[in-house]
Amino acid sequence: MNGRLSNATIAKLPVEVLVPRYPGNSVTPGIVHLGVGAFHRAHQAAYVDACLADGESDWGIVGVSLRSPDTRDALKPQDGLYTLAIRDSAGEQLQVIGSIQSLLVAPEDPGAVLAALTDPRIRIVTLTITEKAYLRAADGTLDSAHPDIAHDLANPASPKTAHGFLAEALARRQAAGTPPFTVLCCDNLPANGATLHRLMVEFAKLRDAGLGRHVADEVAFPSSMVDRIVPATTDADRTRIGQQLGVEDAWPVMTEPFRQWVIEDRFPAGRPAWERFGVTMVEDVGPFEDMKLRLLNGAHSGIAYLGLLSGHATVDRAFADAAIRQFVDRLWAEAIPTLPQDAGLDTTAYTAELAQRFSNTALAHRTAQIANDGSQKLPQRIVASALARLEAGLLPEHLSLVVASWIAACAARGGALPEGHFTDPLDAALNELFGRNLPTAETTAAVFDLAGFANGHPERQRLIEFVATHLVHFKQGGPKLAFAALGIGNEPPRLAE
Ligand code: CS2
What we know:
By secondary structure, this protein is α/β, with parallel strands linked by helices. The chain is built from 19 helices and 11 strands. The protein folds into 2 domains: 10-282, NAD(P)-binding Rossmann-like Domain (Rossmann fold); 286-484, N-(1-d-carboxylethyl)-l-norvaline Dehydrogenase, domain 2, CATH 1.10.1040.10. Strands 5-2-1-6-7 form a 5-stranded parallel beta sheet, sandwiched between helices. A hairpin with a 2-residue loop joins strand 3 (82-88) and strand 4 (91-97). It binds D-mannonic acid. D-mannonic acid binds next to helix 10 and helix 14.
């Protein structure tokens, strides 16, 4: 290999590799992105790249990592350039993305991040910081007891959390007479814009009432639904991409051909013309969000835990397992009636497309990757639909089985599954709980308490009973018995404990 991917080597790439059709030095920053991981680079950064190529040169991205320097270390020597490898069974298309203009690492220099956020040219802040970084307590409100929140309230000029950075930047902009930026949440949370808005108002009020009012009344937080499957890059991917490029790329990103972004159109400070590049701008993103979270992400979590417990390392292999496949079809059938019925959602086409996407063997999307942070993901993916069914007098047999499979997979680590095979913010508490060997119903109720599942909901106890029954089956006979009890597979059902 000859050197490193960068502005200097880009002209020498093979002709079949797509490259930015705009000179990097013609672009000025318009967006700060918090959480510049692989998902952002496969999704928002690719859409913005298309806008820049179309001449909207004032929407370059300042990429911020809130924790690790890894992305900056990989991309800085490459002038922010990286390869997006779009893969399916038909082959692989390589596209170099140029929209990330600069990279900052918050813990190294929080002042530089605040300087970027207060730059009047920045009109949008996008976020992909993962579910757990929103720091919600079990009841959904801001976890104001979290040490990082306490730190940020005491040290507003050197924050650690997204909340701290956004609040301080908005305060400084207000003081300087600079209009606020629009905050665009791109994480898989329900009503993600409204949720972040509520948390930010809570946080800002803890700083001072005036800032709380400013954030409440004058800052726009449109919701958005983002979708693209992005498996973690492996060393084999790096080697293969390097060979195809003829130069090294320290961190290419793998993805599928499918992509979708639905955004509420509330951008008082302006926005790129995303709708020209396949983004759907809408008034209310709710129905799209629910469909994606409950059908795609809900099935993903089920496939991940059931796949792990059945010995499948990747989504495509798990989905090719006849029992898991049948289970997912039934899971979808259970979740679909909980979606808004009058929003014109085509769930038949949607699930047919999902089945194709989950079968993409070229992605090798690891079940252990999706299994991470289940306590943060299951409420919006699974528990919400299960509760909606119970409220409507319907059974949540398959939805509740996913919750049980999560608990079983967590408990299997250090046994049937490797120690630390996937992680969860609740790991310490969960391990302590599993070590107590309580009766299954008590364990289940304790897990619900820890994770805040169905907190205060009238159907909480019934849901716990469904989950506990499945969990007994998992303990006695693994996924086979749990499936058999639902009439999936060939094993005759056995009685619960
Ligand atoms: C996955 C998502 O890891 C996970 O939890 O379910 O990252 C999923 O791949 C994306 O939401 C797809 O858009």
